[in-house]
Description:
Elements: H1 14-26, H2 32-40, H3 45-55, H4 57-65, H5 69-74, H6 76-80, H7 87-97, H8 104-114, H9 126-137, H10 139-146, H11 152-165, H12 169-181, H13 189-203, H14 212-215, H15 220-227, H16 232-235, E1 240-242, E2 251-253
Amino acid sequence: MERAEVVARHPYQWRRAWKALRVLIRDPKQTDQVFEVLEALSGGSFEHQFQHFAADPGGRRLLAEKPALLAMLSDRDALRTLPDGSLGRAYLAFMESGSLTADGLVEADAVAAERNPNPPAHQRDADREFYGDRRRDIHDLWHVLTGYGMDEAGEAANLAFTFGQIPSLGLGLIVIAGAIIGPKTPRLGWERYLFRAWRRGCRASDLTTAPYEELLALPLEDVRLRLGIEAPSIAHPEGIIVGNRDDESTDVASPPSPPVGYQTAAA
């Protein structure tokens, strides 16, 4: 069945985006503000990206089957049965190390939606809702695949990587803000680090169409190779930057060793 491309554009809500960005800069833990910025500056990017997803064979298969990825990521007992070194086990370790839940971003998305007088583009029909929800739900999987931690430096790098995969004005604004307020390093080291994260996202395969349900049981390094994601030691030979602005210092972790591919800031 052919799918006609109808790109729906929405006026940019700069005041709403700026207000949310200021809150996010003050408190990066307010994840709902990320969704506020993204929705305020979505324009026609969501629809354009959805059309690209729907035109891809992998995307078409996902739309036809609509697998319940969130349910699989929430089933920790099932994840524990997966082989050591697998993507699923690494994801479980990542989530448990930060006391995170798979549906945490669902709640943040819902909070932002309550403040939005106009429903976002992904709430218009079942296919777009599935695509929008899946993009949200794979965020923490991308943390594991990239090796970027859940600290502020890791979140900024993961968003820069995501910007390389799913470019949008709102995401670009957040990444630029992260570059400006991040650690002051010699020779623009922090900015170059984010650039490498963005370039890494650009070079990878289209990760939105990946069948993660089938990849969870595979070795993490094998999944990276399959999806064209550079290993952390290659993308960042000087190491993964770990830290928060409240920390006395920001460290550079050694390139992570397989199979566990992430570093987190000390609590």
